[in-house]
C-alpha cells in the first residue's frame, strides 16, 4: 500500500512540474491512473479492504491534480470519455458500456460502489471536470483554472476603510472546500444600500471568486428613480 501511495503522490507532483510535456505523454499518464482504478475496483470482493479503498481514493485525487494542471486534456474526446467512464465506475460500481455487453442505462443499473469513500472521491472528480471543461480562459492564462482574486486583493482594491482581514468569515464544506465570505459591499460599483456578499471558493479544482448583491430592481431603473 505504501509503495502505491508513494507512486501516486510522485505522479501528482510530476503533474505540477512546469515543463513542456508532449500531449501523448500526458494522455498516457492519465490513462495509466484510470487503468489503475479499474484494476483495483475489479478485484474480488474478499480482497476489498480499507487500505485498498484508500489507494483508489488516492488515485482519484491524483487524477484531479492532472486534470487541474492540464485542463486542455479534457478537450480530447477519447481522454474525456475514458475519465468519465472511470468516474461512472467509482460512483455506481460498474461501467454502462464495455466491449462485451450492451449499453446499460442509468435507470436500469443497481448502484454498488466499492465504498462510500470511493464514491465521494469519484463525485469530487466529476465536480472537478465540470468546473474545468469548456471554462472560459481566465486573465491568468488559458491553462489556469484559478482566479487571481484573494483576500489581499479585495482589501487592496476596496474603497471602504472598514474592510480588513478580520472582515472575512470562513467555512469548511465536505472537508474539501474552504469558503471565505465577505458580507459587505466593496465600495466600487456595488450599491451600499443593498445586501452584498463576496465569496472565495477554494477546492481541489482551484480558487474561484463570486460577488453577489440583492437587487430588487435593475440598476438602470434605480438610476431613473434617483433622477426623478
From TrEMBL:
Tell me if Cell membrane is a UniProt keyword of this record.
no
**Where in the sequence is the signal peptide annotated?**
1-15
Q: Which InterPro entries match?
A: RALGAPB
Which molecular function terms from Gene Ontology are attached?
GTPase activator activity
Which UniProt keyword terms apply here?
Signal
Q: Which PANTHER family match?
A: RAL GTPASE-ACTIVATING PROTEIN SUBUNIT BETA
- What protein am I looking at? Ral GTPase-activating protein subunit beta-like
Q: What organism is listed for this UniProt entry? A: Leptonychotes weddellii
Amino acid at each position: 500500500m505504501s509503495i502505491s501511495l508513494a507512486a501516486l503522490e510522485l505522479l501528482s507532483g510530476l503533474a505540477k512540474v512546469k515543463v513542456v510535456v508532449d500531449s501523448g505523454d500526458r494522455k498516457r499518464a492519465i490513462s495509466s491512473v484510470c487503468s489503475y482504478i479499474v484494476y483495483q475496483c475489479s478485484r474480488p470482493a474478499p480482497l476489498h479492504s480499507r487500505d485498498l479503498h484508500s489507494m483508489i481514493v488516492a488515485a482519484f485525487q491524483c487524477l484531479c491534480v492532472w486534470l487541474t494542471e492540464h485542463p486542455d486534456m479534457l478537450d480530447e474526446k477519447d481522454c474525456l470519455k475514458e475519465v468519465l467512464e472511470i468516474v461512472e465506475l467509482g460512483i455506481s460500481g460498474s461501467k454502462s458500456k464495455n466491449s462485451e455487453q450492451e449499453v446499460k442505462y442509468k435507470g436500469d443499473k443497481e448502484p454498488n460502489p466499492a465504498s462510500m469513500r470511493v464514491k465521494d472521491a469519484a463525485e469530487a472528480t466529476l465536480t472537478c471536470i465540470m468546473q474545468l471543461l469548456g471554462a472560459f480562459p481566465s486573465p491568468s492564462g488559458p491553462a489556469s483554472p484559478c482566479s487571481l482574486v484573494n483576500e489581499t486583493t479585495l482589501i487592496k482594491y476596496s474603497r471602504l476603510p472598514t474592510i480588513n482581514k478580520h472582515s472575512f468569515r470562513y467555512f469548511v464544506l465536505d472537508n474539501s472546500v474552504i469558503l471565505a465570505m465577505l458580507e459587505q459591499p466593496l465600495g466600487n460599483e456595488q450599491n451600499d444600500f443593498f445586501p452584498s456578499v463576496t465569496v472565495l471558493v477554494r477546492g481541489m479544482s482551484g480558487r474561484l471568486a463570486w460577488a453577489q448583491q440583492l437587487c430588487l430592481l435593475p440598476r438602470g431603473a434605480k438610476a431613473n428613480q434617483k433622477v426623478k
